[in-house]
Amino acid sequence: MNPILFLDVDGVINSSHYLLSYRFDVGAPAEQERAKRAPRGSESICPTLLGRVDRIVRETGCDVVVSSAWRHGRDVHELTALFRSRGATFRVRSSTPLDRWILTAEEIAAGRTVTEETRGDQVQAWLDVHGGRGRGERWGGWPAPIVLLDDTSDMAHLTPYLVLTDHHVGVTDADAERAIGMLRADGAALAEVPRG
Ligand SMILES: [Mg+2]
Q1: Residue 128 neighbours by CB distance under 10 Å
Q2: Is pLDDT at 83 greater than 80 in this prediction?
Q3: Ligand 1 midpoint to CA 143 (Å)
Q4: Residue 63 has pLDDT above 50, yes or no
Q5: Domains of the chain: which residue ranges?
Q6: How do residues 129-138 score in pLDDT, each as one tens digit?
Q7: How far is the CA of 149 from the centre of ligand 1 (A)?
Q8: 13 forms bridges with which residues in the sheet?
Q9: Cα-to-centroid distance, 123 and ligand 1 (Å)
Q10: Ligand 1 centre from 29 Cα, in Å?
């Protein structure tokens, strides 16, 4: 099985700097025309930052699984179209299970008002469903390397596989290099990983 990149959106392929600077350009007529035809939300994706993710995929042959809140209300085809409209060459394989809003009886009894589920738990749930060997093993039980590319750190037991970005700047070249190194950790060569 291929290595997996769990991809966040906000703070990774956009940044607070990008979103602020973008606002100055939205009034341009050409940009308004483009925006009418573009997938919803595409103006919030930075092509330069997305290009770094594209490089990670091209150089490692990893699959992309979206872990961002952007997976709510968008299927894999819409997510793929969204990224391709901003220059990506990869397609989105899947996305992690949707956020759990309902409290368990134990959480209610413990006085919780929000669920205790972390993004790491959602990633683990995806690994378990798609053929992982179970929590507690290397790469969360996945038989190939995984990386969680994210600007937040609630990854629970999967924190060793987190490449943490700075939401002010998004994914950097150094972050991309690190992710590539981690995804190649078992020596998997690109030629051995068929791309669909
Ligand atoms: Mg984020």
Answers
A1: 15
A2: yes
A3: 26
A4: yes
A5: 4-188
A6: 998 887 888 9
A7: 9
A8: none
A9: 14
A10: 30
State both tokens at 23.
């606002």
Residue 156 has pLDDT above 60, yes or no: yes
pLDDT tier for residue 153 given thresholds of 50, 70 and 90:
very high
pLDDT at 102: 79
CA of 97 from ligand 1 middle (Å) equals: 16
Rounded to the nearest angstrom, the gap between the alpha carbon of residue 71 and the centroid of all alpha carbons in its chain is 10
* Alpha carbon distance 33, 37 (integer Å): 7
CA 55 to ligand 1 centroid distance, Å: 20
Give the Å distance between the CA of 53 and the centre of ligand 1. 14
What is the 41 CA–ligand 1 centroid distance (Å)? 15
Q: How many Å apart are CA 159 and CA 117, to the nearest integer?
A: 15
Q: What is the pLDDT of residue 185?
A: 84
